[in-house]
Predict the structure.
Amino acid sequence: MRDRGGGWVAAQVVLTAAVALSALVGLGESTASYAAGGVLLAAGVALLLESGRKLGRSLTPFPAPVPGGTLRTEGVYALVRHPMYLGGVLVAAGWSALFESVVGGVLTVALAAFFALKSQHEEARLEEAYPGYADYRRRTRWRLLPFLY
């Protein structure tokens, strides 16, 4: 597990659980927070499902690619190189908004920073595994968030 990046996965689980638990210290619920949270949650879940569907058998929580996996560059992967991470951040942001949790908001920012670091580590491994990854990276400018990063 260590060779595939198990530490990254463990940290991701802890951060995600912390965001989920942040609902316990939320400020409450309002119509605006429900609406914003619902939209963000729905967008994040949709992005996670579509990204996972596109990856198929290449799907893994580890930064190391699945042996014998396939590089995906179409669909959501043509817009951003790590759409699953973006989906995770959107879900965390939606959850935090839903419960008006400031702690959840801070943890969502921490999760986004974590995914930025994990994606850097992952991209080095993807470049080793897939000869076309460097070209894909040049074509698909945005790592995590379209038009920003």
In short: The two ends are 29 Å apart (CA to CA). Residues 44-61+83-149 form one domain.
